[in-house]
Every structure is written in structure tokens, then in C-alpha cells.
Write a structure and sequence with these properties.
- 15% of the residues lie in helices and 42% in strands.
- Strands 3-2-1-4-5-6 form a 6-stranded antiparallel beta sheet, with no helix packed on it. A 6-stranded mixed beta sheet has the order 7-8-11-14-16-17, sandwiched between helices. Strands 12-13-15 form a 3-stranded mixed beta sheet.
- Strand 1 and strand 2 form a beta hairpin.
- Helix 2 packs parallel to helix 3.
- The chain is globular and about 55 Å long.
């Protein structure tokens, strides 16, 4: 996903009220930007950090700028710059995963002919982030049917996407704050599997300095337990990291999801 128009650079002064951040632009101007991230953003909201913002031309918006990227100390232990970029805008995760599916990057989610977003489903009034489906064409009919019967059979895959920014010792952790909504989604996905469908919890990790993904049990023990139960029931857990620059974000590499 390319950023167009180009992002605007600055330095973070502070994040507050969850959805707001004060940023000093390279020109010296101080502006308030929208922060599209409901999590704690641990390690990603240190004052003084280099940040990049997008700017909307929508005159009805109260805050024209949105915080997109932050530069943090790298957890990779490499010998390069010692820093890495992190995508903190959770509203981009679905688009990143969708693009990766359409470009053939995610092998596990290939072979579907249709992709829809934000589809209502489940017993708890949820919306699935991405619904993949592939209608099955005509099949032979029985003795009391026509020679061929066109059945509206669908092979569906329900994909719930989570944006992951918290990293400790090369390990991506989710969630970074207690998430009742995330627990609800795991229950919904588990029901999909129990009803004979396919369900995937997809961890989008928009940074490139991690090697594996784990549930953050110390932050939300209930979520970790539900994730393990969901996977045991047949829900698939996938995690991919991204390559980032102030020009674009692209999902590239699969990392293992460790539940032990």
C-alpha cells in the first residue's frame, strides 16, 4: 500500500485521550493529529520519536492529519541503524491484508474467487473483517432431479484481522491492552468452525524486527486462553510482518504463532 500524497514528517510531542497526538512538524509548526489506534501503543508513543502523518483534504474533519508511522528502537539486535518503523494506524490493517491476498503473498488464503469486507455474521452481532468465498458450480443431480442442478454452495473463509505493534525480545504480542472485543471475535470464529466453516485469526504486524507471535497473557489472560481454545477447535492463526518506508507498507513475511 503506497501513501499518496506523501507522508509528512515530524516529532511526537505527546499522545493523549487515546485518539489524539500533538506533533511538531519539520517546519516547527505544532499540530494535533488523529490517532487511529485504541491500544496502549506501548513502546510506540515515546515523546520525541520521529513520526509520519497523512493529511486529508476533507474539510469536514476536525483534525486533518492522521498519525501513520513511528520510528522506534529496533528489537532485532541488528548492526544497522538500530531503529525500525512501525505502522500504528489500525484502520490500514484490513487493506494491507486484502492487498496481500490479492497479490498472492498469503499462500494460506489463495483460491477464493470473491472477497468482501465488513460482513455481518455470528451470534454476538459482529462484522467479519474479510469474507472469502468461492461459489461451487453445477453438480450432478439425483434420480428425482434434473441431470445437473446448480447449487448455491459457497466455500467460505472468515478472516478477522488484528494490528500488532507491541514487541518484546523479538516477539510480537497481542493484545497490548485488555480487549473484550477481541475476545468476542475469537468466540465468533470458534462458532464458525463448529458449524463446519473455515475461520482465520490474522495478526498483521506492521514492522520487520520480529521473529514470532504470541498472545500477551500478562496483559489479557482471558484473550490468551480463548485464542488457544479457538485454535484447538480448528481456528487457524496466521501472522505476517511488513516492510515499511515513508512511501509504502507491504506485508511480506510469515512468522510462527506460538501458543505453548
Amino acid at each position: 500500500m503506497k501513501f499518496s500524497p506523501p507522508l509528512i514528517s515530524g516529532r511526537l510531542i505527546r499522545r493523549y485521550k487515546r485518539f489524539l497526538a500533538d506533533v511538531e512538524l519539520s517546519s516547527g509548526e505544532v499540530i494535533t493529529a488523529h490517532t487511529a489506534n485504541t491500544g496502549a501503543m506501548t513502546g510506540c508513543s515515546e515523546p520525541g520519536s520521529p513520526v509520519w502523518l497523512s493529511r486529508s483534504n476533507n474539510v469536514k474533519r476536525k483534525y486533518a492529519h492522521t498519525w501513520e508511522l513511528v520510528q522506534v528502537s529496533s528489537d532485532s539486535g541488528g548492526a544497522d541503524s538500530g531503529s525500525t518503523l512501525v505502522g500504528i494506524n489500525t484502520l490500514l490493517s484490513n487493506q494491507l491484508v486484502r492487498e496481500a491476498i490479492e497479490q498472492g503473498v498469503i499462500d494460506e488464503l489463495q483460491g477464493y474467487g470473491n472477497l468482501r469486507a465488513e460482513v455481518k455474521y455470528g451470534e454476538e452481532n459482529s462484522r467479519i473483517d474479510l469474507l472469502l468465498s468461492n461459489a461451487v458450480a453445477a453438480v450432478p443431480g439425483g434420480a428425482n432431479c434434473d441431470e445437473h442442478v446448480s447449487l448455491a454452495l459457497d466455500a467460505k473463509c472468515y478472516v478477522e484481522v488484528k494490528n500488532v505493534t507491541l514487541v518484546e525480545s523479538h516477539t510480537a504480542l497481542f493484545p497490548d491492552a485488555v480487549t473484550k472485543r477481541g475476545s468476542k471475535h475469537l468466540r465468533e470464529l470458534t462458532q464458525v468452525v463448529k458449524q463446519g466453516g473455515r475461520a482465520v485469526i490474522f495478526y498483521c504486524v506492521p514492522r520487520d524486527d520480529v521473529f514470532e507471535m504470541k498472545p500477551a497473557d500478562a496483559i489479557d489472560e482471558e484473550y490468551g486462553q480463548l485464542l488457544r481454545s479457538a485454535v484447538k477447535a480448528g481456528v487457524e492463526a496466521l501472522a505476517y510482518t511488513a516492510e515499511l518506508s515513508p512511501d509504502e507498507i507491504v506485508l511480506r513475511k510469515k512468522i510462527p504463532v506460538i501458543l505453548a
